[in-house]
Amino acid sequence: MNALWRVRGLRDLLVVIVLVFGVGSIAMLLAHVSPIDGFSALFDGAFGTWEEIAETLVQTTNLLFPALGIAVAFRAGMFNIGAEGQLILGGFAAGWLGAQVPAPAWIAIPMVLIAGALAGGVWGAIPGFLRARFGANEVIATLMLNVIAVLLATYLVTGPLIQAGGGAQETALLPKAAQLGDLVPDSRLTWAFPLALVLAFALRWVLQRTVFGYELRAAGEAPEAAKRAGIDLGRTALVAMAISGALAGLGGATIVTGVLHRFNVGLSPGYGFIGIAVALVGNLDPLWICVAALGFGILQSGGIAMQAEAEVPKQVVSLVTGLVIIALAGRRVVASRRTT
Amino acid sequence: MNGWIGALLALAALTLIKATPLIYAALGGVLSERSGVVNIGLEGILIAGAFTAVIVSGATGSPVLGALAGVVAGALLAALLAYAATRLAVDQIVAGTGLNIAALAAAAFGLVLVYHQPGASHEVPALGQTGEDALIVLALVAAVGLHLALTRTPWGLRVRACGEDPSAAESAGIDALRTRFLAVVIGGAIAALGGVFLSLGELDLYSDGMTAGRGFIALAAVIFGRWTPLGATGAAIFFGFFAALQFSLQRAGVPSEVMQALPYVAALVALAGFAGRVRAPASDGVPYIRP
Amino acid sequence: MRRRFGAVQAVDGVDLELLPGEIHALVGENGAGKSTLAAIAYGAVRPDEGTIEANGVVGLVHQHFKLIDRLRVWENVLLNREPRKGWTIDVPAARERVRSLGTRYGLDVDPDVLVETLPVGVKQRVELLRELDREPTVLLLDEPTAALAPSEIASFFTTIQDLAARGTAIMVVTHKLAEVIAYSQRVTVMRHGRVVARHQTAETTAAEIAREMVGGEVPPLAEREMRAPQPLLDARGLTAHSGTSVLHEATFTVGAGEIVGIAGVEGNGQSALADALAGIIPFGGTLLFAGTALRGDDSPAARIKAGVRVIPQDRLREALVLDWSVRDNAALGRQRTLPLARFDAAAREIIERFDVRPPNPGAIVGALSGGNQQKIVVGRALLGAPRLLVAYQPTRGIDIGAAALVQSRLIEARNAGVGVLLISFELDEIFACADRVLVISDGRFVGTFAHDEIDRGRIGALMAGHA
């Protein structure tokens, strides 16, 4: 029998460490940089100073939202590769609305965050609907929608919804009231970070302690049994994908309101994809995902510093991320396909 | 006098050009899935093929060597996925996604390493017009060849058996894991030619993101084509047609992003329309674990 | 020979010898190790200890056919041994080889047909042909008559006896003692992985073998109390299809306080019947439940609410979440009405009333034996206040002790006023439990028998489609 959900803990952790340090070192050597210099630049850049720690937490937050969304989809038996597109559209909705409709902070902030979540939720609900209604493979649907999302956002931001004061492929600067407050002054770290943590705890509670969570998990792990237990698989697929998209969209919104203060088509260096790795390393458990997000946040912020300081191209981080996903792909085999 | 006939022919030619990388990728996908392994990593294989071909062509001065290197690179990447899918029995879709991310990153990394600039490579010796045409013809030949191989040869029968029921295949003495592994690797080699076409056939360089999700459209083509080489080729040509339309319609004033989105929307609609009505090989995507 | 699977010693110190021209029966209840032994003898599984010697090719016809549905008959029979013409397969030669093989052994099949279109009996012929093409000197058959109608069983054994007469050594793994007595020359009895008895068939009886299989007496079933059933379920012209299973115009009733047994060979519409009642598929016709007409487009949730409980055919796929605890599985089906805090108490109730071992609500269901898993499924259905219980193969693949417990609980529920529809492929089970027997064949009900009218011969004939 496969130990599918059981934490293979130590062995997988070892694999991740080997990949990070092993492949990382090889790449650094190829770039004519000693691994010692490379890694010290990376870790120094991640938490050398308080500002750098704050930046690491910013990256952690940006990863945490989509990762939580992807984990919810996974638990329901779906694979949401479309978090990137959902995140981008969520960010666009937040950025556009916030600049278009000025309001006092206590209205503006919830408004833009909800807009982001809604936009992402709708974008996630589309493949959910296609799966529920037509049985269409949500993997390919979300992949297509990723590309379409970028094109849609670009079109809207440069065309019909263009805003004065925005640069190329940008919305206008958000009024101060619509910007998330800084958690640490003069840093990019905002209240989005504790928000994400709260969401993680809330998600865990919902999954473990509510009927909704029970039915969602059953649908993901044993669809035939769930169906006979009265669970509506189509509805579960739709709702799970909508929630998944909403979380990713919320993440995009927090990036726009907190970090960039405007929407830019290039706002995400692939958070929606790295989020897959975060979700897997976190074993699809919201609390462990927080830890995994921190780990990848360190790699992300450290990677930028590493490129600047040690001249190692930061793509090394993405390369290692991809390999980690391959290595941990065993952590999720669709339950319905199990043979015993 | 040429008028609209000329325009139609030009459109047909452009359709074929746009379809060729899709055909190669889709054929690779078909072979892989008929043996039972879903290869989401086609995009990564296209990238690997395109990138490696440029690097080797630049280093050796021979575009043909570059093309061969691209094929080898695709096969190697596919081997990684094949190993994870057969021996480690991991989730094939997740592993394929990881492959795409890793391949894109590796290519970007390689660009900086070799050319000391991100974004694009220098121009390298390319295959030229004859080379480009040869690759187009080869794609169609490969489609027919794969069709014959799957339906008429013993090897093809065994591949199909593994894709339907690996347990039954093994009880007939077939090594299902090895058969799947080979099918995925050969499929990767074929798909990589699509990448070679993009970088050395149509152009003479590699740039970040030049594959633009074609590997994913190819997956839709596999489904749309009912997992047959000829069907997938037809679907690839269909999607290529939408890509070819871009230029004509752009002159008509349609916004460029809408045009660019056409093939992807077409794929999405096709998916929704076809999903319930076609049957994949019974064990497609299901890892086989020996008892 | 010895072989372990995880914590279970499946085969423990077994010696077995097969002689040419002889039909040797290997019996034991579910989990005794017979299938494992057959797999080892065939070479599919390697023993941890011990040796196998075979004088020639060993063939194995599996319990669950190893046929590929979407390939043709000749492709299945000659897979991996195809006749070639250069680089391609010589298809005419392949077809001819299958035809002559069929004639030689009296097992005629059309080589060009897709296997998925074949009825079960013919599929088995294809499976047999596949092994026979390899000219085996030893032929192993694992539960070969499980999916055959009584008349098909006779013709099957004629083929087998013919093979034996030609010198093949035959071993039949089975739990059907009537067939053992009728057709075998020697019998070996296994229990818990060990050989506990060997006999010349002529010198023993079915009763003796049964005792040796169980290691004692089979516990008696609960008594069926005298009662008059009240109206509960009234089906008229019920039509449904679920995958390949089709039900035509079924008209029947199930009363509260009676067990109605549906006797039939696997694949004759039972799945369509069960799924229609469960609300998984739509149905045509009328279905009255406690006076109210059930809707054809209902959902399982609505049926559960109305008081219909189902014990599905495939507990691993359709009834349990294998990675979850007993506690969480106990709530499946009742998760909307049972508060989270009461999951544990509900699980303990099932564990206690149904003797689930180990008696730990936190145990992971996937680690339990088949018998204990099934007890959870049955217990969950019975303790969920059912009005109608659809029990589909409720004792499939579990040991005799657990099976007897399950059957007794079904009878007790019937005594308490529950209406039970018992769908089973084991005639003995139906005869032991049912108040009335309906025979299903080809999707239609073809005969009704009250408990005292039961006639094995007639029922067997009806099951095979003969009036």
Helix content of chain A: over 70%
CATH topology of chain B: ABC transporter involved in vitamin B12 uptake, BtuC
Number of strands of chain B: 0
Helicity range of the residues of chain B? Answer: over 70%
- Reading the helices and strands of chain A in chain order gives HHHHHHHHHHHHH
The parts of chain B where pLDDT drops under 50 for at least 5 residues are: none
Low-confidence stretches of chain A: 1-7, 335-340
Mean pLDDT rating of chain A: 88
- As a percent range, the share of strand residues of chain A is under 5%
Number of helices of chain B: 11
Oligomer classification = heterotrimer
Order of helices and strands of chain B: HHHHHHHHHHH
Characterize the overall form of chain B: globular
Shape of chain A: globular
Number of strands of chain A: 0
Strand content of chain B: under 5%
Explained architecture:
- The complex is a heterotrimer of chains A (340), B (291) and C (467).
- Chain A has 340 residues and is mainly alpha-helical.
- Chain A has helices spanning 9-30, 35-47, 50-75, 83-100, 105-134, 138-158, 192-209, 211-221, 223-228, 233-260, 271-281, 286-310, 315-327.
- The termini of chain A are close together.
- Chain B has a single domain (11-277), classed as Orthogonal Bundle (ABC transporter involved in vitamin B12 uptake, BtuC), CATH 1.10.3470.
- Chain B has helices at residues 3-35, 42-60, 63-86, 92-115, 128-152, 154-164, 166-171, 176-202, 214-224, 229-251, 256-274.
- Chain B is mainly alpha-helical.
- Chain C is an alpha/beta fold and 467 residues long.
- Helix content of chain C is 33%, strand content 24%.
- In chain C, helix 12 (343-353) packs across helix 13.
- The A-C interface holds A 1, 4-6, 209-211, 214-215, 217-218, 221-222, 224-232, 335, 338, 340 and C 6, 278, 280, 299-301, 303-305, 310, 312, 314, 316-324, 328, 331-333, 335-336, 340, 366.
Briefly say what this structure is.
The complex is a heterotrimer of chains A (340), B (291) and C (467). Chain B starts with a helix and ends in a 17-residue tail after the last helix.
